[in-house]
Amino acid sequence: MSAEATNPGVPLRKRGRPRIDLRRLGRVALLGPVSRDRLPDAIGHVAEAHRAHHPDADLSVLSKAYVLAESSHRGQMRKSGEPYITHPLAVTLILAELGAETTTLTASLLHDTVEDTDVTLDQVREEFGDEVCYLVDGVTKLEKVDYGAAAEPETFRKMLVATGNDVRVMSIKLADRLHNMRTLGVMRPEKQARIAKVTRDVLIPLAERLGVQALKTELEDLVFAILHPEEYESTRALISAWENAQDALTDIADRVRATLREAGISAEVLIRPRHFVSVHRVRIKRGEMRGTDFGRLLVLVGEDADCYAVLGELHTCLTPVISEFKDFIAAPKFNLYQSLHTAVVGDEGAVAEVLIRTHRMHKFAEAGVVALGNPYAQDGSAAANQAEPADGERADPTRPGWLSRLLDWQESATDSDTFWATLRADLAQDREITVFRTDGGTLGLPAGASCVDAAYAQHGDEAHGCIGARVNGRLATLSTPLNDGDTVQLLLAQDASSGPSPEWLDHARTPAARIAISAWLDAHPAGAQGPHRSGPDAPRVQTQPSEEPPGGRGRTGGRLLSVAVETPGAPVRLARCCTPVPPDRILGFTVRGGTVTVHREECPAVARMRGAGRTAVAARWNDPGDLSGSADYRVTLVAESFGRPRLLADLTEAIATADAAIVSANVEPPSEQRVRHTYTLQLPDAAGLPGLMRAMRDVPGVYDVSRAQQAASAG
Fold this sequence. Notes:
The chain is an alpha+beta fold and 715 residues long. The protein contains 27 helices and 22 strands. α9 (130-139) packs across α12 (168-182). The N and C termini lie far apart (78 Å).
């Protein structure tokens, strides 16, 4: 495949992206460095593009970097036949056109010197400082001699870790890959395909996440031409057949200009042709193409408020397609992108998509993090002020949320193959959502993420004990998928030994969650111990009523529980309606046969019997200060809950985890989606009752647990 055939970016350069004349620069480069009193001719293009964004930039450091790069690479040739220096020059020009600041351009000129020449990092640090040295080191490949087949994955790992500290590392890598892709036609087809696949799976998603759309779109077209040559040629032919496609958009653009002019809104209305991949996607989506499908209208205004003013005029004076409206100004994307998207209907039903944004938004939409200049400057410089304060992840452009998550999970992926496969899978998630935590924080997650992913994103390994969630105030299972803007509250078990079940892997979308769950399951091959555990190893609970011994002293579960009453020798029985346990305040009433039935003082039965004229018998626990005796205690608890699947299983699991045995259980039929559970439980220690009640209240769906106040039914 020729270089021209693999270079669908040519139409894009007609929109104002100049290219270096490689042959002319090659001749200039061969002449060697020039005198110090003028800038080398070879970087004139770079200087011009840089000054367009940074009029006061000091170009002397660029001249110095060029001299070192040219002398280091002198004699080296690219496979295309040009002197090697043309490559770092081209990469630097790409970044200069996007508005990169001087430090980035300096590192870009030197980015291959340490890898391909005798220049060392110490030399770079000594002449250009720590920042430039860090950027050059970040994009330097690891040696195949040392890493073998793992060299490429480990190089990307190294690069991503460096990007975590300075996003400019990835900016240089993306520009480097773009120029290499532009000149890929000189390589063997199989090598073209291999490089194109890595570009598709890793570099293009990274360009999207960093918001560098100008690089992303051209990379997409170059990859499209190599990996799908037939579809690419078909798309090229389709675009050629619609050479007059802009006529339809021109008519709508004129109407938009007239509408805004009449409204007194100063705006620039442009027609932006779609790139090859975009046209291909639209054709798949819509089938038959219309003239307005080959481009979009771009409306540029001065202030944020003007964007909404334009939107109001368009929706008032033209027929809008409401389903196409999206507001990325009020809710920016995670990659700095802000814009209003809408669509209007033109003549004969033609639909034109319209993008509305300020000039500043447009700069960020095209250049992403590159437009931030130096986001690490602390001196109030213009570069630092380019990033206006904003909410969410954009407030810290040096460490966007997706990158922080990637850096977290890569530490656990010690194997290169696992890292490489997981990285590609992670980057394949091409859309991100933001969910809100109840403490006011936010979580950035890939689209399709579930409560399991949110749990590990918020709590890390503590999420092993997650037992449920509330989504927008409603109880939800951990498998519940989350939507953009949801509020999620994760509910954690108190048991430190809790752990995930294998089913969680079916609902985990983020690498962090999948790696953490898999690691826990590998470390606990006998099965999960947490609240979602099921199967033959799950704790067994008794659900059938047991006999209570008649008469005698107070008993629970066949063990003696001493209760002193003022009637010596009288048999004592604990009332089943309120199941008193130490240290409850208690009263007794003599019933038929002389047995004293002991109730809690607040039991409704006490008021009824007193109202009937019955005389209470004083009662007390024999050892009121000792709640850790060997006796078992019986208590009846009532759990009020919302109905949901697995509620009974989760409640009984929580009870069993607290070392309580179920003597009897009764579940009333649901009423208005509410369910009432009554459990008579046997506790080894009365002191464990408060903890048991807390554990039951923590079960998702349960909103109250109380002591029984009326007769308990045997289930």
